[in-house]
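User: Round two. Same drill as before: sequence, then structure, for each protein.

Assistant: Same drill it is. First protein:
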Amino acid sequence: MQTNVLRIQDLANPAGALTALRLVLAIAFPFLAHDPQIALGTYLVAVATDIGDGAVARRMNQASHTGAVLDGWVDKILHINGAWSLTLHGYMPAWWMWMWFSREIIQWGMVMTIIGDFRTGRVRIQETSFWGRLTAVSLFSAFCCTILGTESLALPLSILTCLSGLIAALGYLRRHLEDRRRFD
């Protein structure tokens, strides 16, 4: 496993600006979610910045561990803040958030050790598994269907998000525990 440190200067580039824009959109989302068209437009722009920041970083040879870590955290902020907003505005029942964030619920148990690892630089390069990508795509689809009011699609997509999220989280937990054993 490679040692990686987080450096703020790694974000001073166009990819970092796209990630920062997504954070602003995530924070603004609760104030925009009252109108389905504005909510969907805001969400789609935020997702476009998610796709764009990695592509820009790779194309400009500015990909960094710091950018990858921040990208993941900003995605979580966007989706958790967005789901909370959709619940408050009556788009979906609150219990759907348990399905949408099954992966994050399991990962929460790893946060304190991961923070310590970041502090010491003992972290692996951020990689998403097949199950993690499937979770992201199904969450995106469920989010859009929820805003559009198509519960007949949103509910099965939410169930898929839950199941793929659980599988992804268990894989990430296994990888994290293997990494911890290597260092201890």
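Second protein:
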Amino acid sequence: MDMWPSLVYYHLVKAGVYEPIRARDRRGGRGNKAMPVTTLTPSLAEFLGIHVGDGSYTAHAWWLKDGFEEIAYCQNFVSPLLNDTFQIKTHASLKWYPSHRTPRSVIRSQSAVLFRTLEYFGFMPGRKARHVKVPQLVLDADEEVQKSFLKGLFDTDGSIGAGSDQRPIIVAVYTRSKDLAWTVNQLINELGIETRKVTMGRETYQVAPRRSEYENWMRTVGTSNLKHATKWEIYKKTRSCFHIQRYGGV
């Protein structure tokens, strides 16, 4: 029987495996006493999808790190989403990362409420690339919540671009986690969207709808990311992946 995420967290703390975050809560009170947001609304589900895609957190901070071309998405959508969901103020900025040799769009938060919420839904601090998966509460939720989760995941870790055969391709998610790949594939199928065979290359799984399902995907799941939305409009008008590549590749 699956354990409730917060119960798992309780036993990890009790066993000394995980130390509770002690950061001060910006809404008042000690961080370890902050209450999580537990009502799984579409907005919270979209944040969870964003976290699974490109979010990271340690015992001291949560951050989203995306490409520099996603600064509009971070400023105009993700920051307001965090404010509405957790009542915290965040600011998106461009930061230079020598390892990437390019600036990155970054949002950072030290909100204990945000930490507690991630823990409630089963996410622990540290590296998550190979172990992350769709929270059980999302798998058990209604369609609107599942669509929102997929949208957040697609907007941060998916793409619209050109396939190896130079035909347009939409990818819902690239991931190193086998569990995430198969559970996302399951979610998409349950929404009535057929998917291609889950593929793996260079230790990365790729989950994508069939080409015949692209209109259905964008109508059912959609996007909040201006980059994805612009690429989709370009493709609809030109039916060419050449213009998509010029706009920003995959």
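The chain has a mean pLDDT of 82.

User: Perfect.
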